[in-house]
Amino acid sequence: MYYFSRAVNSVHSEDIKRLMRQSSGPDLISFAGGMPNNDLFPIQQIDEIYAGLTESVKKSCFQYGPTSGHPALLSSVRQRLLKKGLPDTGNRLLITTGSLQAISIITQEFINEGDVVLTENPCFVGALSVFETYGAEVHGIPIDENGIQIEKLERKIATLDKKPKFLYLTPNFHNPAGITYSLERRKKLLEYLDGKDIIVLEDDAYSDLYFNPEHESMVRPLKAYVGYDVDIIYTGSFSKILGPGFRLGFMYASPEISEKAETVKQALDACTSNFMQILASEFSNEHYLDPYLAYLRNEYRERKSMLQHALNKYMPETVQWTEPLGGFYFWLRFPKGFSSTELFERARVRGVVFVTGRTFDPHNERDNCLRLAFSNMPRKHIEPGIRILSEEIRDLL
Ligand SMILES: Cc1ncc(COP(=O)(O)O)c(C=O)c1O
Questions:
Q1: Is any ligand 1 atom within 6 A of the Cβ of residue 329?
Q2: 34 with 180, same domain?
Q3: Residue 288: is it exposed, middle or buried by C-beta count within 10 angstroms (0-12/13-18/19+)?
Q4: How far is CA 353 from CA 24, 220, 377, 390, in A?
Q5: Quick one: 238 and 275 in the same domain?
Q6: pLDDT for residue 196 is more than 90
Q7: Can you give the pLDDT at residue 12?
């Protein structure tokens, strides 16, 4: 008999473990994994980069580094953030071991058991599992195709007896909903939050993966908007643009928040892998990153179009979705009463898997929706997978 802490009781963490188990197998057509495609990784460039390092830099790859991050990577990330319009003063950058660690650090910084965190509904399940692990009381606010519903946010805040510690948002190429906040919704949200003293945790893991250069201006981060009194902690990741195996992310926040974050990180892992930081900074500084991103955008746009085409061809009319402008996901919505968990059981028998809607609901209830990821599967699986899924859907509707 073990006396485990309450931290091990996250429902969403259990969901993630179960899904990982059920969703991998050599014979499965899997729309489940929200990860990049193995065949697209820049293996050769990384070989060349490592081979070209001086012996002293190679040695420092194996060494501990500063908690805040490797100086060369800090400077190249900072340059990229400035290009996205983020303010160059009044903030500090911290490199983290994946952006999930940034979310976890921020949660540890602010959350005592029972504190309130507001999220979107649906919400990235990894963040939900972090909030639950640290004992937060999580309230999900519905989103529509333009972003979080401000009236519902307002109503929720009015009914709470505690001030939320922060509001967690993913405005660009949402995981799982595939939506991107409209410019109007971004402004309205900032106007609403102006002076309310509610911290925003802005998760921007996907904004480099737009399908069309025309949409680059749509992904301007909330933190880049000026003239609003809203404290925004911005997080980003190398996972979707270089590979999750690098475990590299970052947070950009006020000096006070960053300083405390560094204290938390010191106790977690002291520093992020120097090895990975050096490879990633060389990859950015040697001008590999921009052409590689152009290549990825093209690849994912093509996969997205194939999935969109198959959905149009096979899905019944009552199934709805929003065409994503970037990122990895389609979010299918079904009439009330539909259970994506039941669909999952049937589709799995026929060798097709996805992630059920309930998984992304902070309250673990809403199940008449599901997530399809097109990033990680061979192209030839897309059409047969959707055909099988649509047959099972028609049967259940
Ligand atoms: C919205 C969102 N944020 C953060 C992450 C975590 O990324 P990382 O690998 O950097 O921890 C993911 C990964 O799926 C994600 O979808």
A1: no
A2: no
A3: middle
A4: 9, 33, 11, 12
A5: yes
A6: yes
A7: 79
Burial tier of 299 (Cβ tally within 10 Å: 0-12, 13-18, 19+): middle
* Bridge partners (DSSP) listed for residue 253: 92
Any idea which residue has 């102006």 for tokens?
A: 194
Shared domain check, 269 and 348: no
User: Residue for token digits 């030839």?
Assistant: 380
Alpha carbons 142 and 158: distance in angstroms, whole number:
16
* Ligand 1 centroid from CA 35, angstroms: 9
> Ligand 1: distance of its center to the CA of 128 in Å?
12
Of 286, 239, 290, 247, give the one whose Cα is nearest residue 48: 286
Burial class of residue 382, CB neighbours in 10 A (0-12, 13-18, 19+): buried
Pairing state between β 166-169 and 199-203: parallel
Domain that holds residue 234: 64-285
Half-sphere exposure of 179 (CA within 13 A, CB side): 27
Distance CA 152, CA 148 (A): 8
CA of 92 to the centre of ligand 1 (A): 21
* CATH number of residue 118's parent domain: 3.40.640.10
Mean of per-residue pLDDT scores for the chain: 95
* CA 205 – ligand 1 centroid, Å: 6
Write the pLDDT tens digit of every residue in 153-173.
Answer: 999 999 999 999 999 999 999
Ligand 1 mutation target, pool 12, 239, 246, 360, most atoms within 8 A of CB: 239
Please report, in angstroms and rounded to a whole number, the separation of the first and last CA atoms in the chain.
45
Helix (H, G, I), strand (E, B) or coil at 196: coil
The string of pLDDT tens digits covering residues 77-96 is 999 999 999 999 999 999 99
Structure tokens at 178: 């595939």
